[in-house]
Write a structure and sequence with these properties.
With 595 residues, this protein is mainly β. The chain has four domains: 182 residues, no CATH class; 154 residues, no CATH class; 113 residues, 3-Layer(aba) Sandwich (Cytidine Deaminase, domain 2), CATH 3.40.140; 109 residues, endopeptidase domain like (from Nostoc punctiforme) (endopeptidase fold (from Nostoc punctiforme), Alpha-Beta Complex). The protein is 10% helix and 40% strand. It has seven helices and 36 strands. Strands 12, 13, 14, 16, 17, 20 and 21 form a seven-stranded antiparallel β-sheet that branches. Strands 2, 4, 6, 9, 10 and 11 form a six-stranded mixed β-sheet that branches. A hairpin with a 2-residue loop joins strand 13 and strand 14. The longest helix has 13 residues. The protein is elongated, with a radius of gyration of 30 Å. It starts with 5 loop residues before the first strand and ends in a 6-residue tail after the last strand. Keywords: Hydrolase, Protease, Thiol protease. GO terms for molecular function: cysteine-type peptidase activity. Pfam families: NLPC_P60.
């Protein structure tokens, strides 16, 4: 053991890797790391002292970072229960690098230091540590430290340490620090992205006696153009080759395909199937000829009249090389192509649906307390809406490694839903593992419920929604995601193939005097029905006189309707005299009018 040979500490210093600069800027997003080098030189206690080599494990057990002024240690990512926004790790991730460096120091080596955990010819032991911050607008002056068994701690803080350095030495004082400033995570704008294209002709195809010809495949590449920023990882919102838009004009057809899941597979030959009516035309097309996330439009002429029109959109989750998250939205615009129109609101802010459970848009205190009491294990539970009382109910985490994440039993959850109106599943997730939430997405898809992930210890939150189709009944109410209008959209698309555009709910918020359906119905192809005979697919718009709530439902036949009122679950209900009196208008889509 190195400490058994300890004679005295000949050197302890700290610097940024590969630069002589004193200060660095990173993003405070919990992912962006910066590499710090700590140099330690220990001399043995022989008459002619020589440097002592430390093993990798010895360095990891002994070396730490601390606040330059106070000496308070910066917690490692494996330590739970702390409140510090700053964290340090011995393991780097994919988001390593400073945004910029400044303020040179004369005593630092501008050349790159040796690899992690190296005993160098200069007698120094070099140790790499990786620092990150979970919040923006934070600044930290950091010193190095080493805890030597049977000797004590040495720190390069402003005031030093009282540990005697060697048998005849004095208290150790060798001030040395680096500075890191964590800024707010970057919020991308439309101007930060480029959309490049390339096109190629495709072979004609036959199916069921129909001929699709004069085909062109156009690739649209979404890429970051902000200087020094680039795409690091991509998560697609749908399987590669999925259609997210279609348009037609007599014998012409245009269809849009999401190929984001194939990001990084350069010059990939892909089969994209143009579909309408009973026809399917598999088209061979090469994607990913340029950098960026690829989306494809195929257009062509058909020997039979085409049909199937819906202008829809898709999105892709992107993390850049600094760990900033964004979710660009791509919209199909028919013959005009594919456009980047905005960004999906899936940020780490608490979701709209849980605001009534939350004070000051934070995580509820009872959940925080349960997480704190359970550390180092992660927790799970549910938020339920029973008898108009919202509450958190803890559940059992059945993960074999509970300190690393959560697994909740599907059968238990299914049974619980028989007696409780569950709106969310709650899971705590270590900050260091928050870059990959695919397991939680799988459970959300499995259970058909939103998962609210509380990152620990930063207490940031991330809401994951099911990417599978939900049943019409028993959906939790989540404004803008699962509400009366989204239920109508899903029903008409599944049952009648009618795709409605989505709209920001803020325009039709409570008290605005507007109803989303009465404003947008004509543009979406609906006409107002004046007679009293209803048919399946009709949209019912209600005035609820005791409230300012704007509400709609879809009539499904046999005197039944589907609707979704907050804060409860969606349901099937009789279109009774009570609802008939509250009906202000009835709308029917042109495609459902019997001519």
């Amino acid at each position: 053991m190195y400490y058994e040979e300890f004679g005295y500490l000949a050197g302890l210093s700290i610097q940024h890797q590969g630069t002589s600069k004193q200060s660095a800027i990173i993003y405070g997003n919990g992912l962006n790391m910066i590499e710090i080098i700590v140099k330690v030189k220990i001399m043995d206690k022989s008459a002619d002292p020589v440097p002592v080599e430390m093993t990798k494990d010895e360095m990891k057990k002994s070396i730490f970072l601390c606040d330059y002024q106070t000496g308070e240690k910066i917690p490692f990512d494996s330590e739970y229960g702390g409140t510090s926004d700053w964290r340090v790790s011995f393991n780097k991730n994919d988001y390593l690098g400073a945004l910029e460096y400044s303020s040179s120091r004369a005593d630092a080596d501008a050349d790159a230091a040796p690899d992690s955990y190296i005993f160098s010819e200069d007698g120094y032991n070099y140790c790499s540590l990786y620092v990150y911050c979970t919040k923006g607008n934070r600044n930290k002056k950091i010193a190095a430290g080493i805890a030597i068994q049977n000797v004590g701690e040495f720190k390069t803080t402003f005031s030093g340490t009282n540990t005697v350095n060697g048998s005849n030495g004095a208290p150790f004082k060798a001030p040395d620090d680096i500075e890191i400033r964590a800024i707010e995570p970057y919020r991308y704008t439309l101007d930060d992205f480029s959309m490049n294209t390339d096109s190629s002709g495709l072979s004609s195809i036959w199916d069921h006696g129909a001929h699709l010809y004069s085909l062109t495949g156009t690739n649209y590449y979404l890429d970051i153009r902000k200087p020094s920023h680039k795409i690091s990882s991509v998560k697609a919102s749908m399987p590669s080759g999925s259609i997210f838009g279609s348009d037609y004009s007599w014998y012409w057809i245009w269809q849009a395909f999401d190929c984001a899941a194939d990001y990084g597979k350069n010059y990939l030959s892909k089969t994209l199937t143009v579909r309408f009516s009973k026809y399917e035309f598999p088209c061979k097309h090469t994607i990913n000829k340029q950098p960026g996330v690829c989306f494809v439009r195929i257009d062509g002429h058909c020997s039979v009249m085409t049909s199937w029109e819906f202008y829809a959109e898709t999105y892709v989750d992107i993390i850049d090389n600094f760990g900033n998250r964004t979710s660009p939205v791509l919209k199909f615009d028919g013959s005009k192509g594919i456009r980047h129109t905005g960004f999906r609101n899936n940020s780490r802010d608490i979701s709209e649906s849980t605001e009534r459970h939350v004070s000051n848009h934070g995580v509820p205190e009872d959940i925080i307390q349960h997480i704190t009491d359970s550390t180092p294990d992660m927790i799970c539970g549910v938020l339920s809406q029973d008898d108009n009382n919202s509450g958190f109910k803890p559940c059992v985490n059945i993960s074999p490694t509970p300190e690393q994440g959560v697994i909740i039993d599907a059968d238990f959850l299914r049974t619980l839903r028989h007696s409780h109106q569950i709106t969310h599943v709650i899971c705590s997730v270590p900050d260091a593992l928050s870059h990959d939430v695919s397991d939680y997405q799988a459970m959300s898809d499995r259970d058909g419920l939103p998962y609210l992930l509380v990152l620990w210890p930063s207490l940031q939150s991330l809401t994951i929604f099911p990417q599978t189709e939900l049943d019409y009944e028993n959906r939790p109410y989540i404004y803008g995601q699962y509400d009366c209008y989204s239920l109508i959209r899903d029903y008409l698309l599944r049952e009648n193939g009618i795709a409605l555009n989505d709209y920001p709910r803020e325009v039709y918020s409570l008290g605005s005097g507007k109803n989303i359906f009465e404003v947008q119905a004509p543009e979406e192809g609906f006409v107002k029905v004046e007679d009293t005979s209803l048919q399946a697919g009709d949209i019912l718009v209600f005035n609820l006189p005791s409230t300012t709530l704007q509400h709609s439902a879809v009539y499904i036949g046999n005197g039944q309707m589907l609707h979704h009122l907050p804060p409860g679950l969606s349901c099937r209900e009789a279109y009774s005299e009570k609802w008939e009196k509250r009906t202000s208008s009835v709308w029917r889509h042109n495609n459902l009018i019997i001519k």
